[in-house]
Hints:
Its EC number is 3.7.1.3. The chain is an alpha/beta fold. It folds into 2 domains: 10-54 and 328-448, Aspartate Aminotransferase, domain 1 (Alpha-Beta Complex), CATH 3.90.1150; 82-248 and 260-308, Type I PLP-dependent aspartate aminotransferase-like (Major domain) (Aspartate Aminotransferase, domain 2). Helices cover 37% and strands 12% of the residues. The strands form 4 sheets. It has a 7-stranded mixed beta sheet with strand order 4-10-9-8-7-5-6, sandwiched between helices. Strands 11-12-15-14 form a 4-stranded antiparallel beta sheet, covered by helices on one side. A two-stranded antiparallel ribbon has the order 1-3. Residues 110-112, 139, 141-142, 195, 199, 224, 226-227, 247 line the site of pyridoxal-5'-phosphate.
Amino acid sequence: MSTVVRPVDEAHAHHLDAVDPLPPRRADFHVPPATGGAFTETAYLAGNSLGLQPRGTRAAVEQELADWARLGVEGHLEAGRPWKPYHEFLRDPAARLVGALPAETVVMNSLTVDLHLMMISFYRPTPERYAIVVEDTTFPSDSYAVQSQARLHGLDPGRAVVRLRPRPGEDCLRTGDVLAFLRREGHRVALVLLGGVNYLTGELMDIPAITAAGRAAGAVVGWDLAHAVGNVPLRLHDWGVDWAAWCHYKYVNAGPGAVAGCFVHERHLTDRSLPKLQGWWSTDPATRFAMGPDVDPVDTADSWQLSNPPILAMAPVLVSLRLFDEVGIAALRERSIRLTGYLADLLATVCADLPARVITPADPQRRGCQLSVRVAGTTAAEVCARLRHEHGVVADARPPDVVRFAPVPLYCTHHDAWRAATALAAVLSSGTLSYRTLSSGVPSTGPGERRDA
Length: 453
Ligand SMILES: *Cc1c(COP(=O)(O)O)cnc(C)c1O
């Protein structure tokens, strides 16, 4: 979308929704009622934080509860979807979503746990090669995880963990700078662990280029795909990614704390020298119930599993992955580029007049659907509270000053995007926020002024 659309043009938003070649699957989701504003439903732009509940989820969970009530322990073999191999039902759709071979994919645990399990195998520091490279704005859990992994190996995290920063005055990393760093310093890097899409800025990293450069430097390259999966197309196998982990509760909509996913490249699957933490689900299912004292290894990503799968938590993942199979991530991405482009145009118009600016890359190839707005003179939390209570717009605050808007292509409309931009303009220009002196680089004509009142 290249034309700049005035934020007041609600009719144009409706028009774009009417002519959209892939109508959103909004009817398949529970859209929360609005707690304020002129509309009965929220404009839900927080699917990057917690995706909405698909309408099919309840029945899928209830089916497992019913099978448990009816069958007790026999449900392991006799449930409509037998529990014993339950994780195998999720393998193929998860593999399709991330561009992996089924054998490379396993759905298990939660994301941070999977990061640790992967690092037990793939972070093997030596005196010469010990660094873990993350982005400076890595998600806190990832930061704590890599620091604790360094300590586990007796290393000082201050020395072992390298945090890549954007250039002064810039918000996002440049691919070229990451590649140059890996060429220059790669000899001391044991593991590169970046976010595929940065949770704060919404920047989509060049996963194939960075993976190739990291591996060429002799490092292992893992990716945290929490904000990438279900958001952008991925081809983990073809890109040669060593390993990856992601959660399913953001863009994949599988519910709070949903079971996570993990990818290990085929070339590592037969390497029995890799250190692993193991449990009874690591062993070959054919001999698992012989209950012998030793693991019978399998050469798939399943060998990183520990425990029997949490069925009640996995049923929603199955429902959600099915939706992605039905719509297809490629078609979703096309719609996402249009919808996010529309919101980006609206926000550019709004922010030109206000103490706020979009920090997400303007190039659609360098972002997914999330747009992050840095606000000045107020807090992101205050802005989000007012968006929600005064306008029924749900966005997401990251302290101190970043408001994240994700027009999720599965269920958001152009009208939702219009509501978000219009509400942001209203909140930031209302004059009741306590503006301080604006920081440099924030274009503004001052509070209280709007072109499109
Ligand atoms: C959401 C997110 C997490 C969350 O970790 P959990 O273990 O699922 O609680 C971790 N890392 C990143 C990059 C995230 O975006």
